[in-house]
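Incident log, structure service

09:12 report received: a user says their structure output differs between two submissions of the same chain.
09:20 pulled the input from the user's history:
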Amino acid sequence: MKPAGERKSGRGWRKARIAARLLYRKAEGPLRPRDEALARRLSQDPEVEDRLIQQALYYLGGARKHDLDRKLVARGH
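09:34 re-ran on a clean worker, output below:
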């Protein structure tokens, strides 16, 4: 077994959880410049996959994820 630092899925999962937390913060209000910069970097990181972010959103709070989905859909119309 590889050490934790070498497993790509572990790093990607941690980064996806951070991205999910940033999405929840964004839903609550504007992000700070530091958070925006981090979100920009994470959005360009190949380890941070959409499916991992979705899983992280459910992991951090399933009910909150549904509220976030509704807000994002409402913004798109």
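09:41 both user submissions now match this output. Likely a transient worker issue. Closing.
09:42 reviewer note: The mean pLDDT is 83. The radius of gyration is 13 Å.
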